[in-house]
Write a structure and sequence with these properties.
Helix content: over 70%
Radius of gyration: 22 Å
Distance between the termini: 34 Å
Number of strands: 0
Shape: globular
Largest sheet: none
Length: 337
Amino acid sequence: MLWQGALLLVNCGIAVSIVAAVRALTQWHTTQYSRVIAAAAGLCWLLLPWNEAARFWPTLLPNILTIAVEGFLCVYLIQGWMKNRSRAITAGALYLWTCLCYEAFYFQWIPLVLIGVALWKAKRIALRPVIASSIALLAAQGVAGLWSVYTKIEGYRKVKGVLPNWSQVTRDNLLNLAPTVLRSVSEISVGFAFCAAVVIAAWLFVYVRSFSRDSERSAAHGSTALAGISLLGGLISIVVFSLGGRIVIAIGPETRSTILFNFWMVIAAAILTTFTMNRLRAVPKAVFALALAGLGLCLAAGQVLRAGDWITAWDQQKKILAEAPISELKRTPLRCV
């Protein structure tokens, strides 16, 4: 119970970091809906059915703690850049810590640096602090890589090597992302797919229309860039997991292979939704809001269904443990192999 409580607390911390990141990345398009959309993005992290390992598997606790650090690091850098400060030393130290805690964070400096470049291109910040921060993040990545090689050579730890067929595994994982999402909500996949299709159609409609208007083209470019960079951060994490042979799976503990992807995907979706909601008229906006609400209900229902899977598995494990011949096991001498 204690571990589950700690897991819930850390997940709430990740949700808060997502809210803060979304607010930081959409602060130039703030409207009456911005706070609600940012809060909904944080809630989505707690509801994603294909993210169950992060919520129900206490073994993953130290790993998911670093996701909250990644979110707050993103906010920390953006706030610093807006004040013309690089915050290089602290940012480098935090990023090094995430890499040393969990190798899945390797190359996660890429979306952070690209966010800075995108904000500079949009004339929101200066370039110099972004360059300084980038150097610090790259240096931290280099130190983490050298430490990994050193500990492997010295035999301090056993790590998986890069698979010879990692490119094939990566391709299969990337192609399997959408089917994985649908399999995690298989009982309600039709409703989920319908609501998702309406939301995506609204995104596309608004962005295509905005690109055709001179007055909105710049804002559309900036929003698209930030959402694309966020999605890229998630895809990079899938590639890193694939290097070690991790497979994208819809349910169970191995859904950990999508935890970083889910983090960045939620942020990207919130950026797109904020931009879209601000540019729809009354009736289309109501339809879009209803589709979002339906999507949220599907996620909540999927969360309940997948939680039931874990409860069933735990009941079965307790039954197996109860039937174990404890007295015979105690009499069996231990042998070292």
